[in-house]
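Checklist before submission:
- one chain only
- standard amino acids only
- sequence pasted in full

Submission:
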Amino acid sequence: MAARQQGRMSDAENQSCLMVSEDAVAFLVCGFHALEEWVGIGQVEDYLSVLEYLLWVFTPLAIVFILPFLIVILLYLSILFLHVYKRKNQLREAYCNNLWDGARKTLATLWDGHGAIWHGYEIHGMDKIPDKGPALIVYYHGAIPIDYYYFLANVIIQKGRTCHSVADHFLFKIPGFKLLLEVFSVMHGPQEECVQALKNGHLLGISPGGVREALFSDETYPLLWGKRKGFAQVAIDSKVAIIPMFTQNVREGFRSLGTLRFFRWMYESFRLPVAPVYGGFPVKFRTFLGDPIPYDPNVTASELAEKVKQSVQSLIDKHQQIPGNILRALLERFHTKYKAE
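Returned file contents:
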């Protein structure tokens, strides 16, 4: 009997304790909600949710505009290397005619490695570049002509030659670029200087579209050469062959906002190439060299310019799907070998 009464008392005590604990939990919950309301945790969560959404939206945009600057950084690192190289070899400069050969080969190896790793870079038709003697290489200009840098690197590595290049005037005004342009024989393009370089037996690369093509061409790959024929006159005066060149997916690697009206107006009015470039995508790059167009004394500069334009256009038609597509160009990285038609 006593045991039964003791059991009942124990049950009552348990129930009482349970009620107390439930009240404590309820009190704690109410206290937490009151604290949450007082501190504004709910609003903080809303802010964090909005911030997370903004990061999700703008992170890809930030990346595609930051990656092109990495190429600029790589260029300045190349310039820094040249300055260090020059400093270490100042004493040998007076005794060595090929002071910069080692620097060119080193940078060519670095840029070729970058092309192989980031773009799976390939070049087809390198046998059309002569081992000796002059030739004029005419190419399509991407938003950033990084494919041309890879080509120059391959000429140094495979042919043991330095290809001279013609660049726009604004490039010579960029701080710190002077040494890089000198070492790699870049000129601003007077016809007399170009003719002299070819007559001296050098290779010379030029893009008739230049900055205009870089900024205002798009994924449909139009050639924006206008009525330019100076390059053709250079070839005629030098009596050299012209080798057309085009790089597949170069517009998918980097794209320009130059098609927007404001940037077009800025260039046409003030010749300021200020259109933002975005991209840096690791798409597949394949450079194709067409059949050389031999010197013909009976062809005028206008006729030769049109003939070269058609040759470059045929390379685009044959090797580039129009319009270009970034996703497709990325997937082409998995096609390890190009099947020649």
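Reviewer check: The two ends are 104 Å apart (CA to CA).
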